[in-house]
Amino acid sequence: QVSKEGVIIDTFFFYYIFSGMNINIKNNTIYPELLDWVKNDKHFSFARYNDGEWGIILEREPHYSTIKRRWGIPLNELTYKLKSIVEKPLEYFVGIPPKLVMAWFEDIESVINPNIKPINSEIIHSRPFKEFKDFLELLKTKNTLLVGPEYLNSLNFFSDHTVIPEKFVWDHTENIMVKIRQFISNNDNPIIVYSASIATNIIIDELYGEYKNSITQIDLGSTLDPHAGVISRSGHRNYMGENGLEVKRVFKTNERFNN
């Protein structure tokens, strides 16, 4: 076993072992494979668990209180739902940021199922502008459903769009899944991409249980927002400025319920 102190880090590779469970978090090497899978209709599911999700799962402060105050709701049910997911021996890809794994090593280790093999949650989010646009163009050639807020309607990379509420979307997962199932039944080799906050984690897990690897599910989080002219994260303004994207809407901190 390799301890937290024995972590090996270089430009391309981040690796260590959690209590006999391999945590292999790669920055770049899996991305070409992901593209190949999408191109060739080799299905997979990928859900991201970043500091917000883990803050809720672990009830870790100050993240837990900050989210609770920002959203103005009890988090007990979300804690239960998310924790019950990562305690299972998941067969699909679970993304976690390498820096978060290092910072919260013991806490994550105490909860996550030892059979889960996480990858870097930023393998898509960290792509350069042109690479991400190429990824979107690839999705445009497929039967792709976007599950995200109405402001993403301006994007033309998807076959269909299931519009979700901008607030408390996790309270609407059952209705959202009805629409996703309809898309799946009506399309060959369906791909579902999500920008739906914590509802994404819940839905991906539920639908993977039903469809396994007969569909593709990709958690894109807030990555699409700048391409729709929306700033919802601190890094979006610089990203949009560098790549000539027009700013149409800026979210306040307490408005960030999705992605």
Largest sheet: 7 strands, parallel
Number of helices: 10
- Quick one: overall form? globular
Proportion of residues in β-strands = 15-25%
Class based on secondary structure composition and strand pairing: alpha/beta
- Uncertain segments are 1-22
Q: Termini separation (Å)?
A: 35 Å
Mean pLDDT: 87
The tally of beta strands, per DSSP, is 12
Strand/helix succession:
EEEHEHHHEHHEHEEHEHEEHE
Rounded Rg = 18 Å
Describe the protein's architecture and organization.
The protein has 259 residues and is α/β, with parallel strands linked by helices. Helices cover 38% and strands 18% of the residues. It is built from 10 helices and 12 strands. The strands form 3 sheets. The protein has a 7-stranded parallel sheet with strand order 6-5-4-10-9-7-8. Strands 1-2-3 form a 3-stranded antiparallel sheet, with no helix packed on it. A hairpin with a 3-residue loop joins strand 1 (8-9) and strand 2 (13-18). Helix 2 packs across helix 4 and helix 4 (76-86) packs across helix 9. The protein is globular and about 40 Å long. It starts with 7 loop residues before the first strand and ends in a 9-residue tail after the last strand. Mean pLDDT is 87; it is low at 1-22.
